[in-house]
Amino acid sequence: MYNSFEALGEWGYVKVTARDVAREAGVSPATVSLVFQQKPGVSHATRERVFEVASKLGYVYEARTSDRATSTILFVMYKKHGQVVYETPFFEALLKGVTDATYRHGYHKLAVSYFYGRESALEQMKAVQSVRCAGIVLLATEAVATDISQFERLGVPIVLLDSWFPTKSLDSVIIDNTRGAYDAVRYLTSMGHTDIGYLHCGISIRNFLERQSGFSSAMREIAPRTEKLPPIVRVGSTMEDSYADMSAYLDLSPELPTAYFADNDIIAYGCMKALAEHGIRVPEDVSVIGFDDMAFTDVMQPRLTTMAVPKDAMGELAVKRLIDLIKGETNGETIRLAVQTQVVERESVLDLRSTRTATLHDNPSTRER
Asked: Do 172 and 336 touch, CB atoms closer than 8 A?
């Protein structure tokens, strides 16, 4: 009998056999068995194809009872309120990074569990305990420090993903949000913008608070060149809410800056839709830069300039650190790994330097003396 796969998801358990994975990958069930048991006799290309199919479908290897406790990694997606962590390309990419890295490092049983802050913690913890995992990668985007304690009591290694807590001695893999937002503003200034506004999400999570800090830090540096405080528009976390909030703001006919930094791409998308419906062109009338570099940003009209986050690398780093903890291959230190962002230039930011130069060339009387 071939081993089976088991995915622990939002709707319970889904099981398929190795034959199902083999059919999808175009190989024999015996080959699938060899791949997941790390046996020889399978080419590198075939082995990678089997891993890729298992990763794509979310299936996980059912190890033998004798080694089950040390063969399972659990990825917990903690949804305290679900206003930030929901089925977006960003979190799908994080999950893919964790899944791929798990297989790549030889742990071919991955369980994925959704944990809801508004449902019974006791019942959900029973489900988590039933997995008998060797360690946990905990997506802590929406969590606060007190939410983490219940997972610490499980007595297995934990690596936090996408957040950290100064009161917890837990390893974490995060985005350097402060530097990313700072770099976004500095990019706008390098394009000639000094009148810069902020599309800020009102949800209180560490990521947005750190991005606010980075924005404020960069704006303080250019403060001597501007006499007014940067306009901050508080918007919701979804496309629909950010669109509605930005629309209500624009109905007041405010004086607009030349550019906006948005807390993430979803907010940028919703706000750009509102701007368009109010007859305000991007980037001709106002520029926008986002954060995250989600897949849809490359097909928006205009295509969104944004700060790219190496999401796959975050999953890889979290799993690698967790495996080191499981194997005892650390010196007992607690580490926080922060990945850097980088600007992806597209079409939503106007270069005011070239615009100004062209204007002066066409209108010599307006040239500075």
From this structure: yes
